[in-house]
Amino acid sequence: MKQYPLGFSLTELLIGLFLSSVLILLLVNQFLSIKHHVRFINQAIEQDMELQLIKDLFRHSIHHAGFTPCLNLEQLVTADRTQNDQKLSALYIDANEPRLQIQRMHESYQVIESILSEQTILTLADFKAKQQVLIADCYHAEVHQIRRVESYGATKRMTFEKPLLFNFKEPIYIGGWINEAYFIHRNHHTSSLLYKQNHSEELSSLVHSMTVSLADHPLGKVVRITLELSDEQKKQFSVRLR
Length: 242
Description:
The chain is of the alpha+beta class. The chain has one domain (60-240). It has one helix at 10-63, and strands at residues 77-80, 91-94, 99-115, 120-123, 132-136, 140-152, 155-160, 173-186, 191-196, 200-204, 207-217, 220-229, 234-240. A hairpin with a 4-residue loop joins strand 2 (91-94) and strand 3.
């Protein structure tokens, strides 16, 4: 009976090793390709989420621009007692910088119980010395800085740095004064989108340029914003003023 050799020949082993090496190389390349693709997708998702949060913040600010309980700031006689009585503006656009500035009363506000003197009021509002507040009725609005707060139970006796300018009519409201701004900060190497209320903070390093404009619309004025990203993409959106 004819006997056949057991096992593999050297040629067969070399061919097997070659095929195994090719398969391993293909698998490694496929793994690296998938890993790169997954990383790219994750970066794109993170970028989209970051930009969506920025858009939401813009929309919230613009929707509330000029808010007071009765009428918008633009419909009132106004003064900033902390800035030489300059007129208040719900929204200001500086196209050269560029910069978008928004002013308003905080959504959490209280009624003034009584005006004791030109500089002193009684209210349930909880504020501290040095804070800035907006006082408004349906005709006037003015910004003040608080000099002193004295508590009498839930009631606060509040004294301002300067006398009240206008003759307010009840109901009279008091709320925190919000003066916020969006702008591009540039240095020698990079640009980024910053937001400022009490202090400046970076919103995104993805945004290196911003264009803001105000346009008329049948339903009211619309703020148009274009954000140019570091990869030269442009994100455009519009927000209608209330």
